[in-house]
Amino acid sequence: MRNQRRAAGCKPWWRSRTVWFNAGTAALLLLDAVAASLGMLQPLVPAGAWPWVAAVVTVVNLWLRAITSGGITWRGDAQ
Question: How much is the pTM?
Answer without folding.
Answer: 0.69
